[in-house]
Here is the input.
Amino acid sequence: MAKRAETGRKPGRPRSEEAHRAVIEATSRLMEAMPIRNITVEGIAREAGVGKPTIYRWWDSKCALVMDAFLATAAPQVPSSVKGSAVDAVRLQVKSVIKLLRGRPGGIVAEMVGEGQSDPHILEEFRDRFFSHLLAPARAVIERGKESGEIDKTLDTDLALDLIYGPICYRLLVGHRPLDAKFAQSLQDRAVALLRAAN
Here is the structure.
């Protein structure tokens, strides 16, 4: 098991914000060290140095906590800026998502989808939170590009997201081809062609 990091706080009951951060960080460490199926709320509480009631104060299930911990680590690695060229922003976001999912975060996503085959609640959390949070920057950029005329105004944004990010998820889950730099460049070029199709 991953060694618990020192928090530097004095003995005694931790403050609410401090405890929340400790739980997120502990969950992230455990996700790096072992498969999600082997992680338990008891193990997270022990790793974070808090009681189980503290965890259930904020999260109603392990999968909700795992998703929060994943997003806390992954989301900052996907650019959220909506300034400048919308098409250039989409290129950067696609490149960043592929780079992110190439490492351990990609393995975590695959594990969550796998666990979801026997636990529909995990898939629900994954759909509602992973796509809504991690892909929110891409949605915002596409909408801005449609408003400015840089991107085809008739394009369905949800369909565009599926067409752009679907191949990434397919390669990640099936594993038939690599998520490498060549794929990233090719997908960026195809995404731009799609977004500008009617221009």
